[in-house]
Amino acid sequence: MGSPKGVYENPEGSDMIFPAGELNPGANKNFQVDPVSSQVATSKELKEQVEAVKKEKEAMEKEREKKDAAQKLKSAFIISGVIVAVIGAIFAVAKKLRET
Question: Are 19 and 10 in contact (CB under 8 A)?
Fold first, then answer.
């Protein structure tokens, strides 16, 4: 089934449907940006960035708190070990003094 004569034909008679070049040469290529929607998009991106930074800071703070808790526990064990060693040394010296 063919198309009506002359509708899709080039004047030269070739099979090319569109002429070389642009389809709409008069179309505007410089698109104008809506300033309101641009500001909304920018503010939304900034809010997302701020939230991401806050989440990262919170994660770092939690990690720091974990490390601090572990460090405090470690220090407590070391201090209590030193105290036990000193008390043991005092009892050993006291026992030696009683024997003599």
Answer: yes
Nearest-angstrom CA–CA distance, 38 and 31:
13
Q: At 53, which amino acid appears?
A: V
Q: How is residue 11 written in tokens? A: 């004047």
* Amino acid residing at 6: G
* 20-38 residue pLDDT tens: 555 665 666 676 767 777 7
How far apart are the C-alpha atoms of 87 and 100, rounded to whole Å?
A: 20
Would you state the structure tokens that stand for residue 64, as one six-digit string?
Answer: 């720091």
DSSP letter at 64? Answer: H
Specify whether the CB–CB gap between 10 and 16 falls below 8 A.
yes
Predicted TM-score (pTM) above 0.70: no
| Dist. CA 81–CA 74, nearest whole Å | 11
